């Protein structure tokens, strides 16, 4: 049976049983978003193939796929399947540090995506291996990190945790101000 593997937000691989050979015909592959079958695309595939990667697809979209064996020997019924691409998983593309004081700074990030359940903000002094974690709701795009040491460089990593369970991270460095002397 025709089925899909390696599904991503923009591609998937189709696999099918060997029905034809190079000599006995070719396949016509038709695919379209289920919600908009008028946007059908057609591709011809050599009879020697039993798999093909479709790419440049839209994220979070269900595709209707039909594989039509064009045989000059036997009639084979078209094989059909439906495949839904994954939500697009973009890592945070910007992490901004602002309002930095001796003991705190403000961290914000973009973009904020519907597919993110929560963000984790990890921070720790450089050099060093002590790391603190702040959990932030997926609808927020900033947080304040407090109780820091003055005049210290911190590595801040923002990790987006997606509904699918995937995680993507981006890091930035932040420096706290010198504390008041005296």
How would you explain this protein's 3D organization?
There is one protein chain. This protein folds into two domains: 82 residues, Immunoglobulin-like (Sandwich), CATH 2.60.40; 83 residues, Immunoglobulin-like (Sandwich), CATH 2.60.40. The strands form four sheets. The chain has a four-stranded antiparallel sheet with strand order 4-3-6-7, with no helix packed on it. By secondary structure, it is mainly β. Strand 13 and strand 14 form a beta hairpin. The chain contains no helices and 14 strands. The termini are far apart. The chain is rod-shaped. Keywords: Glycoprotein, Repeat, Secreted, Signal. It comes from Eulacestoma nigropectus (wattled ploughbill).
Quick structural summary:
This protein has 182 residues and is mostly beta strands. 0% of the residues lie in helices and 51% in strands. The strands form four sheets. It has a four-stranded antiparallel sheet with strand order 4-3-6-7, with no helix packed on it. The protein has a four-stranded antiparallel sheet with strand order 11-10-13-14, with no helix packed on it.
Question: How is the topology of this model organized?
Answer:
Blueprint: E1 3-5, E2 12-15, E3 25-33, E4 41-46, E5 51-54, E6 62-71, E7 79-84, E8 94-98, E9 105-110, E10 116-125, E11 132-137, E12 142-145, E13 153-162, E14 167-175
Antiparallel strand pairs: 1-2, 2-5, 3-4, 3-6, 6-7, 8-9, 9-12, 10-11, 10-13, 13-14
């Amino acid at each position: 049976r025709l089925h899909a593997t390696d599904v991503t937000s923009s591609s998937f691989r189709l696999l099918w049983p060997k029905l034809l050979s190079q000599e006995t015909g070719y396949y016509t592959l038709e695919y379209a978003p289920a919600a908009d079958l008028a946007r059908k695309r057609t591709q011809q595939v050599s009879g020697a193939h039993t798999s093909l990667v479709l790419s440049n697809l839209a994220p979070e979209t269900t595709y209707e796929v039909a594989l039509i064996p064009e045989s000059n020997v036997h009639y084979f019924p078209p094989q059909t399947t439906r495949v839904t691409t994954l939500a697009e998983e973009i890592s945070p593309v910007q992490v901004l540090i602002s309002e930095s004081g001796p003991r705190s700074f403000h961290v914000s990030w973009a973009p904020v995506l519907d597919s993110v359940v929560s963000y984790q903000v990890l921070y720790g002094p450089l050099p060093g291996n002590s790391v603190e974690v702040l959990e932030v709701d997926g609808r927020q795009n900033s947080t304040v990190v407090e109780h820091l040491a003055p005049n210290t460089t911190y590595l801040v990593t923002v990790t987006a945790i997606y509904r699918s369970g995937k995680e993507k991270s981006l890091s930035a460095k932040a420096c706290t101000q010198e504390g008041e002397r005296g």
